[in-house]
Design a protein that fits this description.
The protein has helices at residues 16-28, 45-56, 134-137, 139-147, 160-163, 190-193, 249-252; strands spanning 4-9, 34-39, 67-72, 91-96, 101-105, 118-124, 154-157, 172-175, 181-186, 200-205, 208-214, 226-230, 239-244, 262-266. By secondary structure, it is an alpha/beta fold. The strands form two sheets. It has a seven-stranded mixed beta sheet with strand order 2-1-3-5-4-6-7, sandwiched between helices.
């Protein structure tokens, strides 16, 4: 059976880094392995975690059964002091409750969105220093071992709740190419459950205040209106998002970044 490796990294689309990583992986993987890449912003562990969860927690009929996720966003912010020999955050191996496997750098919120869906979590025996480009020089060896069902790299079993932070509240989690702002507000939350379609809310993001309409879908608002509604991400418990029909919520709030805090007040 061929393997499908989905890479999630904080390199710009088409960057040389992608070419080098894909080349290094291809040198070690079976010839029938498939590689797909998804870019997130530089050092953006929130979008990394959001993407990993959206791909990894998909229904079986929406993802290949041989999927392996490789998430590499390593801002090296786990310690403030100088690092010797380019040392970086550790690499982890995990298995989700739906049996999807993943290799991920233990950084920021990279695993927060699957924190409660992890069945196994292990530290990995791999060099964490000596290279500024570990995802090219060291990590492909571990990916290849997973593909070949060689788990000799597993070191210590870990508790997700002890080392992985929770999803940040009231925050932009991902910005798509249409300018929709996917948030960490979610179906089933006390606040979103209190909202009714047609409610008007006052929203502050990036120091910009706008009024939006609570909606049930993209076409429940008029052209040009800003809306807040359950989006397409999050699977059984969808994340809410801001969108502007025929426009861009991203532009409306003056180019906010992932991680920006959101303040919402229900209009009287």
């Amino acid at each position: 059976m061929s393997s499908f490796i989905h890479l999630i990294c904080d390199y710009a689309p088409g960057d040389l880094a992608w070419a080098e990583i894909c080349s290094s992986l291809s040198a070690k993987l079976p010839t029938n392995a498939h590689i797909h890449i998804t870019s997130v912003g530089s050092f953006d562990t929130i979008a990394t975690g959001f993407t990993l969860a959206q791909l990894g927690l998909a229904n079986n009929d929406s993802k290949p059964n041989n999927l392996l996720l490789f998430a590499n966003c390593a801002p090296r912010k786990d310690r403030k002091d100088p690092r010797a020999n380019n040392e970086g955050e550790g690499l982890l191996y995990l298995v989700l409750k739906n049996n999807t496997e993943a290799i991920a750098v233990n950084s920021g919120y990279s695993l927060s969105f699957v924190r409660d869906e992890i069945k196994e979590l292990w530290s990995v025996d791999v060099k964490d220093d000596g290279s500024q480009f570990r995802s090219r020089d060291y990590f492909p060896d571990i990916v290849a071992k997973v593909v070949n069902k060689d788990y000799s790299f597993k070191l210590h079993s870990l508790s997700p709740g002890e080392i992985i932070p929770k999803i940040p509240n009231e925050t932009i989690a991902y910005i798509d190419s249409f300018g929709n702002l996917k948030t960490t507000y979610r179906e089933g939350d006390k606040f979103t459950d209190s909202l009714k379609s047609g409610d008007r809310i006052k929203v502050k993001i990036n120091n910009i205040i706008r009024t939006a309409t609570v909606a049930t879908g993209t076409f429940n608002v008029s052209e040009g209106d800003l809306a807040f509604a359950p989006g397409s991400s999050g699977h059984k418990k969808r994340f809410w998002e801001f969108f502007q029909r025929g426009g861009s919520a991203y532009l409306e709030f003056n180019h906010p970044s992932v991680g920006s805090k959101i303040e919402i007040e229900i209009s009287k």
